[in-house]
Amino acid sequence: MQVLKEDIRGRILTIARQQFEKKGYSKTSMREIAELAGVGVGNIYNYFTSKDELFREVVRPVLNALEAMLQEHHGIRGEDIMTMRSDRYLKACIDEYVSLINTHRDLLEMLLFRAQGSSLERFRENYTDRSTELVKGWFASMQQRHPEINTSVSDFIIHLHTVWMFTLFEELLMHVVSPEEMEAILHDYILFEIQGWRAIIKI
Q1: Mean pLDDT of 169-189
Q2: Which residues contact 129 (CB under 8 A, 6 or more apart)?
Q3: Which of the chain's ends, N or C, has fewer CB atoms near its CB within 10 Å?
């Protein structure tokens, strides 16, 4: 019986993903998802309490990937700032961005372009605000570890750092770019960004 319930839940998620991709959050109804999934509209609420919860569950893999990226760089697992001088850091950043887009392209597109009306419609802004605060905290900890560096960077510059990342993602999603071209673009963008930060921080 449990397997059957998981099958139904999986079918609902599959149909919901298809509809959210095609029509966006606001134009997709729980009724049509239920009908296409072959379950009663009342029964769908036994699996998901609301359309918003269902949407969040559909995009959860990309939410988790973006959260991991944030924590990896500036949060609980943030690396030492001096690693920015290494080729390994540059390659790791490029690989991370390529992996995010290749693995979660459709979900990232859904999150950034089709979330209007959901609790995630301001995801970019909320993520950017959180990122700004985390980077400020990370800079403070790096200043204690390396007193010679310059971390007196304005909040607005830190804010722009994340805004540019989302603009990059959006542009890559909106244009047809081959895998080779995407990797070259990401290489140049991340190199540009790292060199800029190194100049500001003086490392």
Answers
A1: 94
A2: 159
A3: N
